[in-house]
Amino acid sequence: MKTLLKELFNDLTGAFNPGEWRKLNHNLQSQDKKSFKKTFKLLIPQFAIYYILLSPLVASPLYNLILFHPTMTGPYDAHNIVGHKIQNIYLPSKNQKQIHGWFVQSPDARRVVLINHGNGGNITHRIPMVAMLLQDKVSVFVYDYQGYGKSAGSATVDNIVDDGEAAYQWLKTDKHYKDKDIIVMGESLGTGVAGQLAANHPVGAIILQSGFTSLYKLAQQKMDLIKLYPPFLFLPQKLDTQAVLNRPHAPLLIIHGMRDRIIPFTQSEELYRTAIEPKQFAKLPDAGHNDIFDVDTDQYKKAICDFLTALPTASQSPSPSAALSTAQTQAPDGQP
Question: How confident is the model at residue 40 (pLDDT cuts 50, 70, 90)?
Fold first, then answer.
């Protein structure tokens, strides 16, 4: 089904390919004026139909297919990460779909890092990231968006923003963390979710890995088709991290591989340039988008460790024994 939809999308978007239109224009100009006008008039309705069918207001399922690449399977039977017990957490998002996550408590940790992952895989693919953060003496909550892993529902831009908000509120109401004790971390697409959370809450810090200025600007850079549509068709504008960081914000760390071919390094360069202080930028010269733990590993880990260590003293730590709400279900020994 996905292959069929992708082929359909490619066929439709072919009408917007600049190369195809240059070729068509050349062929039309080689005809006499009468034939040219007749052929061009026949093309106008076809172009109008394609324009409407591929507009963000009509073709959102196709855009979601391009944007989200969930994985349902993984080592979900894991009991611990680097010796720290995994708690399986289930909580409702705004639309009442149950999302799943892992909460891992680090002994005596005052802060917690909320990981908003990228558009591929699921939380089990973030185990190395969780392990690294635990070694930096912070607790971690990583969750799956709707449609990923064990989370119900399906991913849309609106839904993943709501999922991030639900995860954030769970940390506050169930684990009793204060806003300043919560560090929002975003990876790739998740940097937009982290930015949205930072816009809505006085968080303790922001970490953006392989991020972008805004989803709309990134789409324009990656897809010529998007340039044909006015910005108001993408309202309400979400995942606009640049707008968030242009206003007062928590301490910020931006990390990006300079060989990234999925989200260009220039996106983080612009994000850092336009963000106000306090801000830091860790540039990884040999890393791409998905190989940060394999390339420039030491620089990556050091950047995060130094950033976390330099943060102002956090407020009093919440009680690890805080009761879980009735809206959340947890089975013994970290098993769903």
Answer: low
